[in-house]
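Lab notebook, bench 4. Still working through the backlog of constructs that have no structural model yet. Next entry is a single chain of 386 residues. Request: give me the structure tokens for it.
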Amino acid sequence: MEFTIHNQVLLLVFAIAMLMGAVANKTNFCTMGAVSDWVNMGDTGRLRAWLLAMAMALGGVLVLEASGLADVDSEVFPPYRTANFAWLRYVLGGLMFGVGMTLASGCGNKTLVRIGGGNLKSLVVLIVAAGFAYLMLWGDLYAVAFDGWIAPTTIALSERGIASQELSAVLAGLFGAEAGRGLHLAVGGAVTLGMLAFIFANREFRSSRDNILAGVVIGLAVVAGWYITGGSLGAAWKEYAEFAPEVPSRVQTQSYTFISPMGDSVRYLMSPGQLSFVNFGIMALTGVVAGSLAYALLTRSFRFEWFYNREDVVNHVVGAVLMGVGGVLAMGCTIGQAVTGFSTLALGSILVFVSIVAGSAATMKYLYWRAMREDEASEAVPTQNV
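Model written out:
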């Protein structure tokens, strides 16, 4: 079998994803856990690790763009910088995903990492989320349930003289300035430096090697994905795809995200002989699981875990449905939008990030309130002396 440039790209994507999975397992990198630590304990360590991944990804993309090593504007999946600002889709999808990942004990990336560590609950979450992501991407679920009332709310920025939803372009349009690469680099640089200053202002975070390692590796992995698909290798990959006997799936400029690949995986598994369906996202998904599994086996931390009770099953299944639907609706997850999308400075990605955090935090507050009410009710029941 010929080893083509398509195989080369997919192998690189898989290798980087393995590193992501191993590091996420080692460091306990978890975006849902980051929100939980912050909301419930006031601990911002893992939240700062998440923000560090975002800042590293943004800084790396700025370097790629400034040096001409990659183009993250053309043929991008998903279209982060599109001039069609679907604000309701971003907000609703982000809220749904935030609620879902809290009920399901982790985001898309963490679900894959937990599977690699032996968690069978997360395997159920993956199966359910993947099924609903498939229905949203390749079925009629989005068209039937959402498009009719969400599409009319989309704002066409181009009609307002704004070329895209990239942050500097929006600011330029609002204040009558001239948009361009110089302004983009200035705004992006200011955001990156501001984030890094905030992140490392915390003494505990500066002493946490695991949190720093997680943020740096996840962020640079996203940069690597952009470099592979948006640089010279990516250009050759796209040219190869144009003349391939079977056009490979999603040969576009992209980086790491984990919800649409779940839907794409179902599509492939329904036709396993159709190797052209194996794409960047599927290799990323399997790579994270493989990397986490390798780390768990090497450190002897691999443990099977199953549901505690019926309520645990229901929470995880409902959470998985919300993740699959909400992740596609938001066009990304806590990695796909909040790190990869954020690295493009797309306004929609920022909105999705805020919505995910809000949905997750509100769900945690509700679950805590309900648990307190149940405890109070149980304590109020009189006991009979025997």
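Notes after review: The chain has a mean pLDDT of 95. The longest strand covers residues 84-85. Flag for follow-up if needed.
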